[in-house]
Amino acid sequence: VTKHFCFDRTSYSSKKNTAKYNVFTFLPINLFEQFQRFANAYFLVLLILQLIPEISSLSWFTTIVPLVLVLAITAVKDATDDYFRHKSDQQVNTRQSQVLIKGNVSSLCCLQADLLLLSSSEPYGLCYIETAELDGETNLKVRQALTVTSDLGDDVAKLADFSGEVICEPPNNKLDKFTGTLCWKDNKYSLDNEKMLLRGCVLRNTEWCFGLVIFAGLQTKLMQNCGRTKFKRTSIDKLMNTLVLWIFGFLICMGIILAIGNTIWEQKVGSDFWEYLQWKELTINAVFSGFLTFWSYIIILNTVVPISLYVSVEVLRLGHSYFINWDRRMYYSRKATPAEARTTTLNEELGQVEFIFSDKTGTLTQNIMVFNKCSINGKTYGTLEHFLLYIHTDKWKTPCVDFSFNPLMDRKFRFHDSSLVEAIKLEEPLVQEFFRLLALCHTIMPEERNEGELVYQAQSPDEGALVTAARNFGFVFRSRTPETITLYEMGQAVTYQLLAILDFNNVRKRMSVIVRNPKGQLKLYSKGADTILFDRLDPSNEELMFTTSEHLNEFAGEGLRTLALAYKDLDEDVFDEWMKKLLFASTALDNREEKLGALYEEIEQGMLLLGATAIEDKLQEGVPETIACLTLANIKIWVLTGDKLETAMNIGYSCNMLRDDMNTVFIISGHTMLELKRKSWAPAKTNSAVALTWKRQNCIQVTLSLKRPSSQNLEQILVDVACLCKTVICCRVTPLQKALVVELIKRHKRAVTLAIGDGANDVSMIKTAHIGVGISGQEGMQAVLASDYSFAQFRYLQRLLLVHGRWSYHRMCNFLCYFFYKNFAFTLVHFWYGFLCGFSAQTVYDQWFITLFNIVYTSLPVLAMGLFDQVSLYSLRFPNLYRPGQLNQLFNKRKFFTCTLQGVCTSFILFFIPYGAFMTAVRDDGAHISDQQTFAVTIATSLVIVVSVQIGLDTNYWTAVNHFFIWGSLAVYFAILFAMHSDGIFTIFPNQFPFIGTARNSLNQKIVWLVILLTTVVCIMPMVAVRFIKADLYPTQTDKMSKPFSLPQVRLLQQATRKQGPQEQNLRRVRRTSSRRSAYAFAHQQGYGELITSGKNMKVPTSSTSTYPLYSPTRGLTGTSSVKNSGVNDTTRDQTETYSTGFRRESDQSQEVTVEDLEAR
């Protein structure tokens, strides 16, 4: 395992702690948080009021039992969530590092800090790192220690005596800048970002390094970019709090109405009974009686404020979270990684997402490049004409090419066109020259761990794929020195003298090497963007150029990354003259880069075209289909990436986010208000007649600086233009800017946002969005630890939103509508009874029914509906079914008023039908039936049956659990009812259950059952009629999908399904032509030819056999006499010589380093 060492010079804690509680603080903090909820605090006040005899007509247990149950269940859920947070923190905090303290090396858990590099195992203090977690870039970079500290090596004694002092900038979030000074031995040394190892970077190709801790803990640049953790609440949560306040206001109004009624009744009627009731003098006042009645009715009607609502919602969310965890279709078997809901509070929000913000590298792509096709001398290889004829069946598959003739082949490499191997074996000169170019023109370093076991350490995956292809086709890049390259060409060792490397840069967009072969011939090999290389070809290549250009169009149309290849035979005298000019230009003090560029241009003219390569930047499986499906669900997908524009656009085409049927791709880039306004509204000016259609079929790439002061005035313009487009790609954004883009949409569009990423550079975005999703990919676990949901593949996002999100939203909305309806129907019976009992705060039901109604009689059926209900089984096939959640149609203020109005009407019917029936009704024996307890049992039984029938009508998907809970709840109600009115319970608790025999005396009368039946029919039938008419006249999309298919329709659907699969596969392989080509060359960063030719990365120096001195643009020419360079001291010279980042290499076999290893995994 690669280790890094650092000095313990600070007292900062690097341990991560995302947990909220510990053993001692859990109870007080959790109770404090729970009583911050209005409903819990309200019921605590009610409990206190119930202890006052003058105003309470209910026993205290009617409130304390539900309150304690709610607090206990919520506390268990919070404790479980926090336990998993502790486990996640423990995994991070137990990562081992080693610390040098007073000369002793000791282990320390999780020392993740920003380090100043002091020395390393590599020559000249070089250190190779990967910064994917910081900036999303997977190419390796080079850091170099100061010369004075690199001499310390790994001598622990010298390092222990190190007494330098670093004066630097305060902690900040700038990943690409660092300013500081090292004071040591009476000297000062300038420090910059090239000497820093930031937290989050991964050490590669370096056995060990020593560093000095500069920032630790929250002060590291990575943590400075992570942003603050925000408490996330769903829109339904916010609406529920508002509705609970409204309900409380409604409760106050009812209490005031009944209190005023009591005051009036006491003055006009009640005063006649004062001398008989013998009330205390204090209560004779009618106004004071009304005041006490107000509080009494607040207690009686308290169930209209649903305390059990919150705990029921928590139970539902917990169940929905487990459904996500248990979903086998979201389980990634290759890494044994299931989906995980890391929070239980956001499930229904998954059904309302309108904007998705996605990272690119590791999220949409695997960052694995595969040599797919090529064009050599006007002929394409890798495209089989007969392949598409058999693509519709699995009975025939294209066999892989047999590379057994090559003992040094890469066994993981796959190619499906054997004609290319035949051309190699026939020794066709241009085909051999093609692969010779690929084996020579690069900056890769080989590592041969065992005999014949080659590992290529590539600057980028593209280069690794090209050299691996050449290796398998018989041109094996075996070794290199600063001045030679050794190939094994068809088994024969051939050494080329490396004379010059003309490297990639942002302007050239090409790379060339000049070599001398064993025959003494001088060759220039070049690869680069076709638009660049074609302008430098010999006129005799015009016909071949047109043919190759057509092939490039085909390759690019399939989303492949292309490069053109060319070569040139150099004349000895011309090359000698050119080298003299190069020597002069390399020592120039003024305009050195321009002079060198002109010389490169001069020698790269008149080249001969060899062909082109096509590399597939492998997307994660199912990415194009997932994006297409989410787009059909009216979800806008924005890609936020730190990569260059060309790289992001190429992936956009590969993912089908960018398509050729889009009219134009608009690039908005500028710093002034006027410039951005002009570019933003260019589409409308182009064709005003079809401006709306035009703009809705475009996408934009945003390179707006979100830190500039003027950006505040540009935000609305950016949002307006971007939302008119189907696709938005933001390039070169820092982690903090990703969060700013998300915040921009949250602030201006008021829409539900989801951010998905896999690296530490995505943490800030994930925390800012309403919903954060982490992919457990190749860039560590930082994104997963900060996320709300996690899984292994981007394609699972489709199922998370369209299935789990949509179902959770529908279930929660149906649950809330039913819950409010049930509570209003249950509670408002007391309101109507108040007008007939002299506003005396007498209850209709007995106290036990009030206590058990919400927690026993009706709790399980509604939970079963909220957990298992399914609105449609075609969520993935018909993505537009997702639309109601985005429009918030299923639960809003209007829906709330509708369901509460239904509850009010139901309560009215429940009270007045039995009241009217019992006015004149008699028992079978002629006795009067209208005693208060019979009346209460009749209303209670009618209520339980009505709400049970109603939940049956609200259930869309019946399961055995639903049947068991609904009919079981009815059975439990009758069992408890007869038990409470039985002789046995009266004998044990005579004071608590005084109404012996009431249930059996009431329910054995036919008139009671007729009243119950009439009440149920009158309550239910109007709603059934309304729903039937609405579904028939104004059907929703869900209603249409819910209708059963006829047998012919089922057969047609099955036939369409069978045809659909091959067509989708065909679309992935045969795409329209595209003008997007050579994205690799455009996106390629400054190459590392200088580092190779300098020899600084070579551990074993090799003597030169070159006739010509080796050229390096900064060093000048190796082996020549020294050239005076006024104004440049040795320190600056050393810094200049090593200014660049490094190539990819990995010394530990257990880590993933090459394209081949990654592809195999």
From TrEMBL:
Where in the sequence is the active site?
359 (4-aspartylphosphate intermediate)
Which cofactors go with this protein?
A: Mg(2+)
Q: Which GO terms describe its cellular component?
A: plasma membrane; trans-Golgi network
Keyword 4Fe-4S in record: no
Record keywords: ATP-binding, Magnesium, Membrane, Metal-binding, Nucleotide-binding, Translocase, Transmembrane, Transmembrane helix, Transport
Binding residues annotated for ATP, in chain numbering: 359-361, 463, 504, 527, 561, 641-643, 732, 738, 761-762
Which reaction(s) does its UniProt entry say it catalyses? ATP + H2O + phospholipidSide 1 = ADP + phosphate + phospholipidSide 2
Recorded hits in InterPro entries, A to Z, give: ATPase_P-typ_cyto_dom_N, ATPase_P-typ_P_site, ATPase_P-typ_TM_dom_sf, ATPase_P-typ_transduc_dom_A_sf, HAD-like_sf, HAD_sf, P-type_ATPase_IV, P-type_ATPase_N
> Which locations, inside or outside the cell, does it occupy?
Endomembrane system; Membrane
Chain sites annotated for binding Mg(2+): 359, 361, 758, 762
Task: Indicate yes or no for the key word Zinc.
Answer: no
Region called Disordered, residue ranges: 1102-1161
**Short name of one Pfam family:** PhoLip_ATPase_C
To which protein family does this belong? Belongs to the cation transport ATPase (P-type) (TC 3.A.3) family. Type IV subfamily.
**Which named protein is this?**
Phospholipid-transporting ATPase
Q: Which organism is it from?
A: Cyprinus carpio (Common carp)
